[in-house]
Structure formats: C-alpha cells, structure tokens
Amino acid sequence: MCGISGFIGNKNIPRKVILETLKLMKNRGPDFSNYFSKSISENKKIFLLHSRLSIIDLKERSNQPFKIGNYIIIFNGEIYNYIELRKKLVEKKIKLKTFSDTEVLLNYFILYGKNCLKYFDGMWSFAIFNLKTKKLFLSRDPFGEKPLYIYKTNYGLFFGSEIKFLHNLSQENFVVNEKKINRFLSYGYKSIHKNNETFFKKVHSLENSSILICDENSNIKISKYWEPKIIPRNWKEDELSFESQSILTTSLKRRMRSDVPTGFLLSGGVDSGGLASLAVKKLNKKI
To answer: Is residue 147 within 8 Å of residue 161, measured between CB atoms?
Structure first.
C-alpha cells in the first residue's frame, strides 16, 4: 500500500501544506515520501505527492515520483505480471534502470498510451503527468481495489488515495453529505458503493475501471476502459476443474511476488485456507 495525492490548476500550494500532507500520507507509505511540483504555464501548476511502502525493488532507485523523459508517475498498487511485461520491454531494447513494476507501468504508458491498461494484471490507482502535453492521466483498476478520490473546484482538480489528503491540500472546509450518511444508516455498508458519492459533498470516488484526463485548463474527461464480458462455453467437468486450478495457481503465484516476507490472514473459511495451502504445497512458498 502506498499513498498518492496531487493537484493541477490555478493555485500555488505552500510547501508547508505539502509537507503536512506527506506526513498524513505516511500511514500508507512509511518507507519514503517525496513530491514533484512545477509551473506548467502562467498561474498553472502541477503537484504530485507520494508515500512509499516498499514491496518490489526496495532500493532508492524505485522511489517516487518516478520520471522518464517528459513523463512523471505516482503509483499505488502492484502490477502482478510486471516480470512478463518487463521481458517484452527488454526485447524492444528499452533500457531499464530498476526492477520495479512502477518503471514497467510508465514505459507501457509511454509506448501505448491509455491502451497500456489492457496489458496489466494488477490493482492500482496512479497519476501520470506529461510535461509536454501538460495533461494529467488518472486511472483506477478494473475492480476498484485501490482507492482514488477527486475534488473538482473552479480553480483546479485535487486527487488522492484518501479524502483527508484532498482536504489538507485544498485547505478548504468540506461539507458533510447528509444524504449519503442517511442512506448508510438505513441500508448499511452495501449502499456505500451504489454510486461514486462520498460522505462529503463535491468529493467523489473515481469509479473502478475508469480513466480521467485533465488538461492545464482543468477540462476533465472521464471514461471507462473495461467492462466484464461473459462468454458462454460448454465445459466438461474435468476441463472446468483443470482450467480453474490453472488460473488460480497462476493468479496466486503472481500475487505473491515480493521482495519482502509474505503472510496470509486466515479467516477460517475455505478460501483463505485453500490459498495458503496452495501457496505452500504447490508453489513451495514459505509463509
């Protein structure tokens, strides 16, 4: 888990406020924190903040914000198939400086633009800023595993992993969304994600499997890049069993890629116990 936050628009954020926000973000990323800021045109600025929890390539070279040419990224999550994707970059003679999934992600964006998302198996929320086009690109993973909130004002766009990051960066008083609270109290937690509203007015969650593009004039375009599709197939029972085991094993193997020790949280259900058993007995992992 890492933390990201930022702003693009017509406002200068004092360094004191940035450092206060990074301090708030430390709960999501205790290992390293830093920020990028730049004037992109008259009165327009970009701020990108990141706090890192080191899991892949623990070295300083993989700290964020991470820059390649005109592109700068802040990233929360993990691209599970980064090793396979990295091999393809090497085949293309692209010089890589790290062994991180962050560098792989950014290189794929540079190569394929928004179409890079179809190559990724992972969970993520990330922001990429292009210094040449002066456009900010935000993306959230297909199932919304990683949080990403946005707050649009008449002078720019704030975004971040947690609402308190937006609140501190903007230095504004957020108004409580009483309707959202009433729905939650009436219908429970299942009502929370029926829409992208939050418990504060004008603060929204970027929907899962969505991208947001914001230019230097704060023009925003949001679109979906993925929808689930059901493809009917006539499975035989042994085929279904084999395919299910194969997919589950590959998925688990990718998700256990880590440069730090891995643990399992067991709820006592057949799913978590089954995954732990598979990790030890089939993948020979020490957990």
So the answer is: yes
Number of C-beta neighbours around residue 74 at 10 A: 29
pLDDT digits (tens, 9 = 90+) for 99-128: 999 999 999 999 999 999 999 999 999 999
Whether the Cβ atoms of residue 37 and residue 84 lie closer than 8 Å to each other: no
> Residue 170 pLDDT more than 90?
yes
Which pLDDT band, with edges at 50, 70 and 90, does 17 fall under?
A: very high
- Classified as helix, coil or strand, 61 is helix
Alpha helix locations (H) across the chain? 15-25, 82-91, 101-112, 163-170, 178-187, 237-255, 270-281
Cα separations in angstroms, 48 against 21, 62, 115, 147, 265: 11, 16, 23, 16, 33
- Nearest in space to 170 (alpha carbons), one of 160, 183, 180, 161: 160
Cβ burial of 109 (10 Å; 0-12, 13-18, 19+) is buried
The two structure tokens encoding residue 274: 């089954």
What is the strand order of the sheet 149-153 is part of? 32-41, 44-52, 3-9, 156-160, 149-153, 203-205
For residue range 136-151, list pLDDT tens digits in order.
Answer: 999 999 999 999 999 9
Residue 223, both tokens: 């679109």
Quickly state the pLDDT bin for 266 (edges 50, 70, 90): confident
Q: How far is Cα 14 from Cα 21, in angstroms, rounded to an integer? A: 11
Asked if 264 contacts 272 with a C-beta cutoff of 8 angstroms, the reply is: yes
Say what the pTM is. 0.95
Within 10 angstroms of residue 145's Cβ, the number of other Cβ atoms is 14
